[in-house]
Amino acid sequence: MEETISVRIPREDLKMIEEASKFVKRKRSDVLRQIVELGVKQVMLEIALEKFQKNEATAWKAARLAGIPLTQFLDILAERKINFHYTLDDLKEDTKDLI
Does 97 score more than 90 pLDDT? Predict the structure, then answer.
């Protein structure tokens, strides 16, 4: 369910939102919702990557946290040159719910 909230947006950001709205010929609120959605996804990805790097989440769990397929998460690890660490214990943890 959607909820209405009030938020302060810096003038420069609002100006860019209005420009984007005109460019794509959509309402400002539609463009802003898209920006929020993309921003939330990016923030969740960054959190997932951080948890993975700190060994607080396996690759599979981090991918789920980011809301993306494991293969995409692994591609991002490779793109960012993040060391892929995966132990037998990680495999057991990832598969324990499958049995």
Answer: no
Residue 99 has pLDDT above 70, yes or no: no
- Sign of the Cα pseudo-torsion (32, 36, 37, 39, in order): positive
- For residue 76, count other CB atoms closer than 10 A to its CB: 18
Sign of CA pseudo-dihedral 19, 24, 27, 33: negative
The 10s digit of each residue's pLDDT in 48-89 is 999 999 999 999 999 999 999 999 999 999 999 998 887 788
For residue 70, how many other CB atoms are within 10 A of its CB?
Answer: 16
Hey, what are 16's tokens? Answer: 């860019």
First and final C-alpha spacing in the chain: 34
Query: How far apart, in Å, are the Cα atoms of 1 and each of 4, 37, 54, 56?
Result: 10, 15, 34, 31
Q: Which residues contact 85 (CB under 8 A, 6 or more apart)?
A: 55
